[in-house]
Amino acid sequence: MDSKPETLGQLRQSGWTTRSVKTELRQNAIARIRSGETLFPGVMGYEDTVLPQLEHAVLAGHDTVFLGERGQAKTRMIRALTGLLDEWMPIIAGSEINDDPYNPISRHARDAVAELGDDTPISWVHRDARFGEKLATPDTSIADLIGEVDPIKVAEGRYLSDELTLHYGLVPRTNRGIFAINELPDLAERIQVGLLNVLEERDVQIRGYKVRLPLDVLLVASANPEDYTNRGRMITPLKDRFGAQIRTHYPLEIDTEIAIAKQESEIPDDEGNVVIPEFMHEIVATFTHIARSSPQINQRSGVSVRLTVANTETLVAAATRRSLRLGESEIVPRVSDLDALISSTAGKIEVESLEEGRDGEVVDHLMKGAVLTVFKERFPLETLRPVLDAFDEDLTASAGDDMPSSAYTDLIAKNSAMASAIAEAIDGSDSEGVKASAVELLLEGLHLSKRLNKDSVGGRASYRARA
């Protein structure tokens, strides 16, 4: 509305009608589906699996619980639900629990309507303010979620039996909106029982005072699989109240992992000189996928997409540091920069090892597997015979974080076979940095394929023919 009604009477004249929050979500979702719009923008990899189930839940008006490991966009999807709400919603002015002007439920709102009638002032709430969220912890109390008697209001002279002495909790304050509980099993079972009354019976007892609160709330929760967390469980009666349980998953395709990393990575590029070759994106994403299937990694705790995002950011940071030290304006990550990813990986995976201190070795082994995988996809070995022949004729090549890009350009100029080998990987780029990155991948891939020997001293590596 361009001119929003300011009183209850004006609201009636405008023709505005009351809808439950689930009806509102459903009707807005229907309108978007009909127009071909995306219901949940920014969520990738779930187009054929999770998102259809979520759309079913919205259309059915179901409270929903998302079950999945960390870093599977559960919270992102929950917060995206607010986009299906009306942009503005009227409430009784001054209401703490978003009272419906036509059906007020709090004492304050009922008294205001009874006293002022059609002159009752109306406020408008934006849809972003109709979302409440709580991370469940063992110390979460009924007072946090439902409410508590406010001792200050009692001290002001009100009786304990007066409803106006109540300080409403998060759930009532999200009335006519969406309330999310993250990590629901961590909520103490007695608190979960308190939610049953809110969802079904609508009766709440606060300090012995019984309050009738017919709340209109869509409850959405997230939880890790039962085999991952032993800190708590979701009680069966509460689980039964949820109409939909949706199991999330990690990206199934490397391309999806790369797309998410590109979307979520925060890479400073004020001068526009950061160039990440696609094969370097593939290495970082492939490393994550290999870790998800490795017996050396604890799979119960999961390997989050955040690992790919953090590693992408760290890779660019390492390339930036190297370029600054070498005085190069262009920032292009190389294979030699991958050593920096140990720091951004260590806190995001749990290594299954009987020996302490082997985390670095495990990460290095998995990273070499990722480099080898991408190398084989990018450089078919049967086409590299001319490159190997050059090494058989006493060619040696050096690589490392102290090597300027021009050194790789000189190497390519001396070896036409190497120039032909990297042509497809650089995709016609004239950038010295991209060519240097492709050469490092070629050399390291030939070494990991046992076609070249490698001697490493510090940050410098030398590649030569096998004896």
Superfamily at the CATH H level of the largest domain?
Answer: P-loop containing nucleotide triphosphate hydrolases
Number of helices: 19
Shape: elongated
User: What would the average pLDDT be, to the nearest integer?
Assistant: 88
Classify the fold: give the CATH topology of the largest domain: Rossmann fold
Q: Work out the strand percent.
A: 5-15%
Radius of gyration based on Cα positions:
30 Å
> How many domains?
2
Helix/strand class:
alpha/beta
What is the name of the CATH architecture of the largest domain?
A: 3-Layer(aba) Sandwich
Q: How far apart, in Å, are the first and last alpha carbons?
A: 80 Å
Helix content: 40-55%
Low-confidence stretches: none
Order of strands across the main sheet = 4-7-10-1-11
The major pleated sheet works out as:
5 strands, parallel
Keywords:
alpha/beta; Rossmann fold; five-stranded parallel β-sheet; three-stranded antiparallel β-sheet; 19 helices; 43% helix; 14% strand
